């Protein structure tokens, strides 16, 4: 079928060259479900954690290529989790992109000061987030 080859080319273009593992640390179930499904559909291997404690543990055991870190978590905030990960040799080099509904420049500065490579606002614009994911991962690909 002529249309099938076009479809398969488009599908392959959406899949990363290698199976990139993303750890999504997000306490809001709706945000977590929506973002993990959309990233999985793009070919990423997505692991989810619902709070900072389980996120830090997953970063240590799962060795993700990237962490998407909600800033407002119930047990310890995303800045604290990022600082904890930066202090441990096994997780210090994992890139982190902070995700938050806070849009002030001071929030971006706090994320960078905590050790995040980038920052994105909610609601998530998937095209913008994918560009940031690609930019953060480009040096390691």
Structural account:
- The protein is globular.
- The longest helix is centred in the first third of the chain and has 13 residues, at 29-41.
- It has one domain (2-140): 3-Layer(aba) Sandwich (Rossmann fold).
- Strands 2-1-3-4-5 form a five-stranded parallel sheet, with helices on both faces.
- It has six helices and five strands.
- The protein has helices spanning 2-13, 29-41, 52-62, 78-86, 105-114, 126-137; strands at 21-25, 45-49, 66-70, 96-100, 118-121.
- With 141 residues, it is an alpha/beta fold.
The CATH homologous superfamily is termed: Response regulator
Helical amount: 40-55%
Q: What is the CATH architecture descriptor? A: 3-Layer(aba) Sandwich
Query: Which strand-content bin applies to the residues?
Result: 15-25%
Order of helices and strands: HEHEHEHEHEH
Summed up, the helix count is 6
Per DSSP E runs of 2 or more residues, the count of β-strands stands at 5
| Coarse shape | globular
Q: Gyration radius, to the nearest Å?
A: 15 Å
Number of individual domains: 1
CATH topology (level 3) name: Rossmann fold
Overall mean pLDDT stands at 87
State the distance separating the first and last CA atoms. Answer: 34 Å
Structural class: alpha/beta
CATH class reads: Alpha Beta
Largest sheet: 5 strands, parallel
Q: Give unreliable regions as ranges.
A: 1-16
The largest sheet has its strands arranged as: 2-1-3-4-5
């Amino acid at each position: 079928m002529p249309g099938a080859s076009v479809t398969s080319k488009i599908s392959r273009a959406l899949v990363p060259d290698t199976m990139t593992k993303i750890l999504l640390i997000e306490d809001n179930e709706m945000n977590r479900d929506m973002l993990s499904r959309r990233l999985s559909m793009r070919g990423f291997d997505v692991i989810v954690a619902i709070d900072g404690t389980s996120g830090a543990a997953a970063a240590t055991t799962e060795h993700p290529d990237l962490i998407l870190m909600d800033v407002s978590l119930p047990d310890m905030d995303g800045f604290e989790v990022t600082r904890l990960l930066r202090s441990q040799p096994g997780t210090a080099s994992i890139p982190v992109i902070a995700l938050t509904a806070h849009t002030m420049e001071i929030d971006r500065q706090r994320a960078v000061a905590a050790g995040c490579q980038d920052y994105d606002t909610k609601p998530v614009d998937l095209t913008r987030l994918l560009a940031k994911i690609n930019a953060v991962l480009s040096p390691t690909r």
